[in-house]
Amino acid sequence: MASVAAWLPFARAAAIGWVPIANNPLPAPPIPKERVRRDDEKLYINVSGRRFETWRNTLEKYPDTLLGSNEKDFFYDEDNKEYFFDRDPDLFRHVLNFYRTGKLHYPKHECLTSYDEELAFFGITPDVIGDCCYEDYRDRKRENAERLLEDRISENGDDKLAALGSIRERMWRAFENPHTGTSALVFYYVTGFFIAVSVMANVIETVPCGRRVASNRHLSCGERYKIVFFCLDTACVMIFTAEYLLRLFAAPDRCKFMRSVMSVIDVVAILPYYIGLGITDNDDVSGAFVTLRVFRVFRIFKFSRHSQGLRILGYTLKSCASELGFLVFSLAMAIIIFATVMFYAEKNMDSTTFTSIPAAFWYTIVTMTTLG
Length: 372
Hints:
Layout: H1 2-15, E1 42-47, E2 50-55, H2 56-59, E3 76-77, E4 82-85, H3 89-101, H4 112-121, H5 131-155, H6 159-176, H7 182-204, E5 208-211, E6 218-220, H8 221-224, H9 226-250, H10 254-259, H11 261-278, H12 283-289, H13 308-319, H14 321-345, H15 361-371
Parallel strand pairs: 1-4
Antiparallel strand pairs: 1-2, 3-4, 5-6
Membrane topology: Multi-pass membrane protein
Transmembrane segments: 227-249, 261-279, 324-345
Main location: membrane
């Protein structure tokens, strides 16, 4: 009633013609507690003595997990009116933040095994780890698996097998984490330098460097300095081939490595060179494989091995594959619809360039993506 009484002078002033100081409406009358309808309920969660508070709706957003399902009732303490879990309270903070924000983060300072055990206990899969933390989680997971493999090999008692496994394990660790040693860091920068040289050479060899005297047409730098660019390409391909073979030797699972995206990029980047060596000077034969030189541009994707940001971008695109697929499908439908409209609108014109619906695709794509 005090809040209503505070507005009474303003109401009287408005009644006799005074200008009110505030334009806000009068506050709503108080509602008795018994008439309040509770749509949500605050829950208390005790994790090894540390108490957390959250709303029931926050947990029920993920019904496939322990806290989001009715299974949490097995941990309910009737005396204290709270849920009790004998788990790690420091790690549970990250679990509860997942329910609140929908994003799961990986704490770098925590033990990986303990973190996985907490996720498994609460029914949360590591696949939902955010893109900002997934790279660190994957690296720690791989290092842990390699360390366990090394311990298992050492326990077998086979010195030769242990030595071979130790060499492969150190090589693979050096490839995947170049900052482990000086030699790995040198190899990391050398391969990155040759990737940049190869990409730049692929661009520069198409630049005009004069004209032919006989045909009076432009002569590209790749044609004028053919030997120089061939030697440069050979040096780059030798480095890339050696890197691929060393990675294949050191890979813990060679079949899985050969099927990986980066392995396919490595093969596609060097394959045109070796095919070109086996092609004769016959124009009919070389013309069939001349387009393979286009695949050399895939060497630029090798930079993703040297950039954590590019790898995070790849994981982001992978996690949004369904949304991107729907976007591409929507664009394709719009292109087909507008191209059909343009074709039938210009069909009877003599000088039309829209001779078919596919011929109108280019105009539609350019209009939608630029002029829009």
